[in-house]
Amino acid sequence: MSTKEKVLEEVLTEEQVSNNNEIVLYNDEVNTFDHVIDTLMKVCRHTPEQAEQCSLIVHYNGKCTVKTGEYKDLEPQCSSLLEAGLSAEII
Prior knowledge:
By secondary structure, this protein is an alpha+beta fold.
């Protein structure tokens, strides 16, 4: 009988751990599509297409994640959305 030696190779993987938060934009009956789109392009640096898609998702679904990232980066953006009269929060 031959002896088979099993070699176990331990692979260490480093997981990238980051606490990603989201800015969620909520639907309201006050703001126009144009205002929402313009604000998303200015504050979140969305392309016109991204901003339009988010505004439609918010309109039909009631909410949409418009930005993800670290809290410290999202906080001033969320504040700007609120100052523009939009309904948003960081979750």
